[in-house]
Specification:
61% of the residues lie in helices and 0% in strands. With 57 residues, the protein is mainly α.
Length: 57
């Protein structure tokens, strides 16, 4: 789940960078890049992956 969120954030940062758009100080491409990297790190750490309960036979 976090990987999909990161992909959306990276896409938005890329579009803002290409357009040289300045939405506000909170949504600069660098800020979105850091948010995307955070989501990738959480995904790689296994957060949000869900747990498997029970045994498989």
């Amino acid at each position: 789940m976090f990987a999909i969120i990161a992909a959306v954030i990276f896409g938005l940062a890329l579009i803002l960078d290409w357009a040289n758009a300045s939405v506000s100080d909170a949504f600069t491409p660098q800020t979105l890049l850091m948010a995307g990297l955070l989501c990738i790190a959480l995904h790689l750490a296994g957060i949000g992956a869900g747990r498997r309960w029970g045994r498989r036979r």
